[in-house]
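In keeping with the milestone schedule agreed at the kick-off meeting, the structural modelling team has produced records for the first pair of proteins. Each record is given below as a sequence line and a C-alpha cell line. The laboratory manager (R.T.) confirmed that both were archived under the project's standard naming scheme.
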Amino acid sequence: HGIHTKHKKKEAFDKYFYYHASVQSSDTDVEFFEATYKQLKKKRATVFCEDFCGTFANSCSWVKRHKDNKAIGVDLDPEPIEYGKQHYLSELNKDQQKRVTIYNDNVLNPELPKADIIAGLNFSYFIFKTRQQLKDYLKSCHHRLKKDGVLFLDCFGGSQCQEPNEEETEHDKFSYFWDQDSFDPVNNHAMFYIHFKVKGEKKRQKVFTYDWRMWSIPEIRDLLEEVGFKKVQVYWEGTDKDGEGDGEFKPVSVGEECEAWVAYIIAEK
C-alpha cells in the first residue's frame, strides 16, 4: 500500500491546472466576446461555440453568464475533455451543465450545431499549415455560424516570434515558460513548448508542444474575406505603463511594431 500512495503522489502534477492558471482567463474572455457581439450586432448572443476547446473552461464560463446561454465545445483529444468534465463541468449547477454540449470531434465537421459566436483561441488554428487547410477551417466556421454570427480568432506575432527564445512568467507557487524553439522563414513553421517549474521541484520540460505555422494578420484576413465574411476587424491589445499587454482590446486600422503582440481578428458573417 505504501508503494501505491508514493506512486500516486509522483503522478500529482496537474498540467491542465497550471495551463489554466498561466494562459487562460475564461471569465474575462467570454465577457469580451459577449460585449463585442452586442456592440456589433445590437443584440445578445446566446449560443457560443469553443473550437479546439480542450478542457472547455470558456464554455463553462459562458453558460454561467446568463440562464439562456448555451455552449458547444469541440476538440479531437478526449483527454482534456475528460479533465474538463471532472474539474469545470462538475462545478456548474445541474441547469448550467445541461446547457454545455461537448463534441469529441473535428472542427471541420459541417454537421456540428450552429452558433452565434465561434471562438478559435490560444492560436490553435495555427496547426493548419497550408493555405488550403486554413481556408477549409475558416469556411467551416462561416458555415457553422448563424446568419448574424461572429468569429473570434486570436493571433500573435512580432519579431520575437522569428527567433528562438524563452520567456519566464513567475506566479506565486510556480513559473510558466513559453519557449520558442525554432522558426523557419521559408515556410513560417515554428515549434513552441510550455515548461513549468513548481517551487521546490525541478523544471518540467515540454509539458505542452505546439508545431505551428505563424500566420500573419493580412493572410488570415484575406482568407476570411475569400470564404465570405462580410466584415473583418482587428482588435489590438493596449499596453500598461510598463509596456506590457494590458488585456484590453480595441478595434484598430493601424497596429504597432512590437517585438511581441497579441490581437483578435473578429469576422462578421
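The second protein of the pair:
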Amino acid sequence: MTSIIDSILTNISKYDNLWCKILWIKNPYIDNYEYQLSRNIPMFDSVAYKRYPKLNNLYDKLWIAKNQNIKCGMLSDLKNKAENDLPKYPFFIKPRYGHKNAGSKGCHVIENYNQLMYYIDYEDSMWCEYINEKESMTDFVLYEGKVVYQLTSNYTKGNNPISDEWKYISCNNKPSLKIESWLLNNVKNYNGIVNIQSRGDKIIEVSLRPARGGIYLKETRNKNVIQNINNIY
C-alpha cells in the first residue's frame, strides 16, 4: 500500500508546474525561495517511516493516545458493544497509522449510534475521546537531545471540526511545555525534524518530517535557519 501511494504522489507531482502555469498561480513548493531545504530531508511519512524504523511507534496514533492516557481503542472493538457500553458522545474516529494516510481522510466526529454504525467497518481505524480544544502544529528541530528550533502554527477555530480554515504562523507562537517535555522523553537518539499536531496540550499526531513539504520553514526566508537544518541532515 505504501509503495502504491509513493508512486501516485510521484506521478502527480510531475504535473505541478504545468497546472500552476495554466491556473496562473504560484507553486509554493518550489517558487521564489532563495534558500531550499536539503533533499536528504524526508517530505512524506511513508519515506520517514522506512528511514527511522526504531521510531515507528510514533506513527501509531493509538500508541500516541494511550501514552498520554487519552481514552481510546480500536474502532472494531466497538462493533458488538451494547450502546450503553460505548464511549461518551461525541468521540473521534481516525486511521490508526499515520504513515498510511494523509490529510483528514477517514476522520469523523461521531455524535450518535447511527453514525458509528455507518463507519464501524473502517479498517485499521481507532477511536478516541473528542478533544474540544484549540488545535496547533509545531515543526520541532532536534539536535543531540535538545530542541534547537521550533515553528508553531495556530489553527483557526472554525465550523469544521476536522480540518482548519487557515493557520496563523509566527515566531512568537510557542508550543506547550508539556508537549515539548513529551517529545524529549519519547524521541531519543534522533536528529532532525519532528512535526507534532496537538489540541490543547494533548498530542494527536506525530510525524518525522516537516509540515507541508517544508513550506512553512522555507517561508521564514532565513538563511541561518535553513542552512542549520540542512547541516543536521
